[in-house]
């Protein structure tokens, strides 16, 4: 068993239900983005994965076991939560040495990680003067000391410049390609679109959707059809499409059929088409649609 399995996970803080019967799985060999607006319950869920927060009910297993039952948890899971939790007077090397000693990892691992994370030149500098990007790298280095197969990152691109974000993307890609399980939380959907293989979307502690990103964007693709015969055309398309919606007097939004097929179906019935536009919605739009559907439903 590899990866992460979340089953009926619930966390209540008095009257607030931060996480509500949440179930999903995170597979190895992929980058999974854990998405939701502020306050959706992402951090609480990540913290429950590593026993920082006790669930009210439900469970999480990592590589088939609960965190507390893992023999050496830091060799299985690395987690990065806060980019500022360093002793400001310690150098990057001191910081890693202390954590290496606590985890029982060889000292040589410290230099390895400083190099891997591009911190070798800054190794002797005090972390108090580190930029956000350097802090993120040092945090990642700390989480990777035990060479874990699972990596949990809470908002890793927060405060990173475009160069830092691009670096992080390729770094995480390499880790995933190596068969590791990578779960990153984010509320910046445009960034995630470039990095994630899979997405898990939550809102108000509940699951909205989970699965491969391309499936989510694929099913959200639509064709906007302009036709003076839209009523008749709508009846024909409904037999073949996933969804047909009237968007205006002469406009239909069609899901589950491509533009060529729509044109062929219309031609077959002698119906006029005045315009066909394929839409590729952003993750942002998909997310808003999902949230809206849930609210309306
Ligand atoms: N220790 C706590 N005590 C009371 N309420 C809490 C506590 N921790 C979190 N919450 C509440 O639980 C809900 C989920 O918070 P959480 O931090 O998990 O969300 P999030 O998705 O990570 O949001 P953000 O992107 O803002 O970090 C929020 O309503 C929050 O106020």
Which properties best describe this structure?
binds adenosine-5'-triphosphate; 13 strands; Rossmann fold; single chain; Alpha-Beta Plaits; 297 residues; alpha/beta; 2 domains
Report on this model:
- The strands form 3 sheets. Strands 5-6-7-3-8-9 form a 6-stranded mixed beta sheet, sandwiched between helices.
- A hairpin with a 2-residue loop joins strand 1 and strand 2.
- Helices cover 35% and strands 28% of the residues.
- It has 10 helices and 13 strands.
- The two termini are 36 Å apart.
- By secondary structure, it is α/β, with parallel strands linked by helices.
- Bound molecules: adenosine-5'-triphosphate.
CATH class identity of the largest domain: Alpha Beta
Ligands in the structure?
A: adenosine-5'-triphosphate
The total count of helices amounts to: 10
What percent of the residues sit in helical stretches (DSSP H or I)? 25-40%
Calculate the terminal CA-CA distance, rounded to whole Å.
36 Å
Kindly report the oligomeric state of this protein.
Answer: single chain
Provide the structure class.
alpha/beta
Q: Please state the average pLDDT score.
A: 90
Write out the CATH superfamily name of the largest domain: P-loop containing nucleotide triphosphate hydrolases
What are the secondary-structure elements, in order, as H or E? Answer: EEEHEEHHHEHEHEEHEHEEHEH
Provide the β-strand percentage band: 25-35%
* Integer-rounded radius of gyration: 24 Å
How many E-type strands?
Answer: 13
What about the largest sheet? Answer: 6 strands, mixed
Morphology call: elongated
Per CATH, the architecture of the largest domain is 3-Layer(aba) Sandwich
- Write the CATH fold name of the largest domain: Rossmann fold
Q: What's the domain count? A: 2
The strands making up the biggest β-sheet line up spatially as: 5-6-7-3-8-9
GO molecular function: ATP binding; ATP hydrolysis activity
Pfam families: ABC_tran
Protein name: ABC transporter ATP-binding protein
Domain ABC transporter: 4-229
């Amino acid at each position: 068993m590899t990866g992460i399995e979340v089953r009926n996970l619930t966390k209540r803080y008095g009257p607030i239900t931060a996480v509500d019967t949440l179930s999903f799985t995170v597979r190895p060999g992929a980058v999974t983005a854990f998405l939701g607006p502020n306050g959706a319950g992402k951090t609480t869920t990540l913290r429950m994965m590593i026993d920082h927060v006790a669930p009210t009910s439900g469970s999480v297993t990592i590589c088939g076991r609960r965190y507390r039952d893992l023999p050496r948890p830091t060799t299985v899971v690395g987690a990065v939560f806060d980019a500022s939790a360093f002793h400001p007077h310690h150098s990057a090397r001191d910081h890693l040495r202390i954590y290496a000693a606590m985890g029982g990892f060889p000292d040589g691992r410290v230099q390895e990680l400083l190099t891997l994370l591009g911190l070798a030149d800054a190794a002797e500098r005090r972390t108090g003067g580190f930029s956000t990007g350097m802090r993120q790298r040092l945090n990642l280095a700390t989480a990777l000391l035990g060479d874990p197969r699972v990596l949990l990152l809470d908002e890793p691109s927060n405060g990173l410049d475009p160069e830092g974000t691009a670096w992080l993307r390729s770094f995480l890609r390499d880790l995933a390609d190596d068969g590791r399980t990578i779960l990153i939380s984010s509320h910046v959907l445009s960034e995630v679109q470039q990095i994630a293989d899979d997405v898990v979307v939550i809102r108000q502690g509940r699951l909205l959707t989970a699965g491969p990103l391309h499936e989510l964007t694929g099913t959200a693709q639509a064709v906007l059809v302009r036709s003076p015969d839209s009523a008749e055309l709508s009846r024909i398309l409904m037999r073949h499409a996933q969804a047909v919606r009237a968007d205006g007097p002469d406009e239909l939004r069609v899901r589950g059929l491509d533009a060529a097929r729509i044109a062929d179906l219309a031609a077959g019935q002698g119906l006029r088409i005045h315009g066909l536009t394929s839409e590729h919605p952003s993750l942002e739009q998909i997310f808003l649609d999902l949230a809206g559907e849930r609210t309306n439903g």
